[in-house]
Amino acid sequence: MAEDKNYTNAPLEESELEIDLMEYARKLWAARKLLLKVAGIAAVVGLVIAFSIPKKYTAEVILSPEQKKGGNSSLSGMAAMLGIGNVGMGADANALNFSMASDILASTPFILELFDTQVQTLDGEMDTTLVAYLATESRPWWSTVMSLPSMAIGGIKSLFITQEETVEEKPIDPFRLTRLQRGQVGRIKSVITAESDKTGMTKIGVTLQDPLVAATLVDTVLVKLQKYITNYKTSKAQEDCKYWEQLYQERQKEYYEAQEKYAKYSDANQGVIRQSVKIEQERLQNEQSLAFQVFSQVATQLQMSRAKLQEEKPAFAILEPASVPLLPSGTSRKIILVAVVFLALVGTSAWILFGKDLWVSLKEGLKEPNEEKE
Fold this sequence. Notes:
Layout: H1 2-7, H2 12-30, H3 32-52, E1 57-65, H4 73-82, H5 101-105, H6 108-112, E2 118-120, E3 127-129, H7 130-134, H8 141-146, H9 148-159, H10 163-166, H11 179-191, E4 192-196, E5 202-208, H12 211-268, H13 275-312, E6 316-320, H14 333-373
Antiparallel strand pairs: 1-5, 1-6, 2-3, 4-5
């Protein structure tokens, strides 16, 4: 009663708040042994979880593509010197940029090219392909437990499949991948990441359990990505260049044949003054001149196509090359331990302060209707 008289002098809300806080503190102090037990159990669970998750290392590279603005002055200048006017760049030079790097790296044809990448672990115990290495990476124990049903189903299915059907060593056909190959593609996709900003600067990362393998793979991905984008941007120019080279060979042959016919006919009819001979000689000379004009124009177009092919090739500035990571990435074991203990204490405290009373009131509320019925 004395406590009630003291609190009546203070505002009602502050008094109730202070009473509630003191009551909460009293309940938690009374349950301190339970909280200590929960903290100890949570610490053990946190250690098991932390040491069950294998260490992973992330190797990253950062590169920036060449930024091209407006038309190409060198190509236009060359066209002006050759007297064929301004030459456009054809397809948009920015049709494929590094903002699409994540989509390119996630494409199945690109991933399939990484299957046979040679990798070596840091300890030197393994020197094999990327697919073979990924099969040796360890997994948390709960992943194995969760996969037991599917493994059991697969084992049962294998009993009804002949020996020939279980052989998965088949040539890779992107149009018709086997279940094993699809799983390998998904596994490789999960370890590769790519981020691009508005300026085109791109960060590519590979996360694996071995630092040397991660660095090797990210460097391989970088090289293949540069090659992929270069081939894409220059594909049209390469086709044009092949076309003009073929046309150049054909027109050169025609010009040489016309030149040879004119020379042979002139030598054979030297000193002859008949009009028919002169007409035929003039006709052959005109054919030679026409063949030379066509050959000259094709040669000019060939030089332009070669120049355009060179101009279409993108340039890349590697700001951060691949290197072997020294420290593991991801959440550290200390943070995992602290997080598990914290969540366990918060959950137990919530049960002591609110859950227990709510459960008791819920049970009493269920008993009252039953007693009224009786």
